[in-house]
Amino acid sequence: MIAPFAYTALPMRVVFGPGSLARLPEEVAALGLGRVLVLCSPEQADTGRTVADALGERAAGVLPEARMHVPVEVASRAQELARGAGADGCVAVGGGSAIGLGKAVALAHGLPVVAVPTTYAGSEMTPIWGLTEAGAKRTGRDPRVLPRSVVYDPELTLTLPPQLSVTSGVNAVAHAVEGLYAPDASPIVSLMAEEGVRALAAALPAVVADGADPAARGEAQYGAWLCGAVLGATTMGLHHKLCHTLGGTLDLPHAPTHTVVLPHALAYNAPAAPRAVAALSRALGGASDPARALWELAGRLGAPRSLAELGMAEDDVARVADLAVADPYANPRPVTRDGVAALLHAAWAGEPPA
Ligand code: NAD
């Protein structure tokens, strides 16, 4: 039986395919934009300049200063530069950090964002923004920060290192997993989630075997698009809460933290989410225990499987468990302090999910 649901489609345009970066100028022009500021991370300054060159006279400059979690100082510099250059929009090229910077400018000035994603994080599909000030990250939802147009060109992901490809891919899978059991799940979102997990689980081993394999890169980015759309449409639960807390308090790296925690969070929630487990089982080739299958996939692909190897001390388990249960949030299984502490300890030690 179809359970009652509500679903709001987010207004945006997606252009997908190898070589689609060449279509960026027409996407920018179609939005009526004549002077866009290009935003990227320092490590991708060359990519930023390539994008600016492709835009020609529509480019107002390149700011290669995006950093993880959008520090307010960087956001202010981007906002001032955009105003000073008379920019009427931004093109954010890169991972969640660059796209997050574009969202910060949109939030302050209402300038439209065109996103050109080069990881699998999925920020380009969501109206969620984040800003970090004095070590504290604030997040919120605002329709103004949702990119108007997203250009997915798998050729831009060929340089994504294997390890980052895997952890970023599992970060995407995490959006789908939590979307499947979200309080605001719906049939269309569940279809996207199942297909997104299937595509990523199939593509990531091929990406690791050959990072320049265009078919594998295309399928991985297709999966990341679907999983990002799930993130944008639903409310995340225990897994995202834990990763947010671990990142915010211990400064653990975003995508590897998601990779380590996901099998454990899924194992915790599985008894209360049978339909999600059934969908994930189908997506993972009939796996009887999707949490265990994800843990084994991470191991096979050489990804980190313990929070200890990401730099977390065993003593931090209790502190993070306290924080993770401090405010109530939707989750299919009741979140208890002892349950979270046991989950975190297993993830810290690198044990299989139980
Ligand atoms: P990132 O954007 O910080 O990128 C990681 C590193 O990889 C950077 O040095 C970047 O320059 C490099 N890189 C990216 N693409 C590359 C490529 N194709 N080739 C070579 N190097 C490349 O990391 P991320 O995991 O994409 O994003 C994480 C951030 O995004 C976090 O701050 C997270 O909170 C945020 N995020 C936000 C949302 C949202 O909806 N608001 C969703 C997901 C993630």
TrEMBL record:
Residues 166-348 form the Fe-containing alcohol dehydrogenase-like C-terminal domain. The keyword Oxidoreductase applies. Residues 11-154 form the Alcohol dehydrogenase iron-type/glycerol dehydrogenase GldA domain. Pfam families: ADH_Fe_C (PF25137), Fe-ADH (PF00465). The keyword NAD applies. GO terms for molecular function: alcohol dehydrogenase (NAD+) activity; maleylacetate reductase activity; metal ion binding. Keywords: NAD, Oxidoreductase. Signal peptide: none annotated. Belongs to the iron-containing alcohol dehydrogenase family. This is Maleylacetate reductase. It comes from Geodermatophilus tzadiensis. The lineage of its organism: Bacteria, Bacillati, Actinomycetota, Actinomycetes, Geodermatophilales.
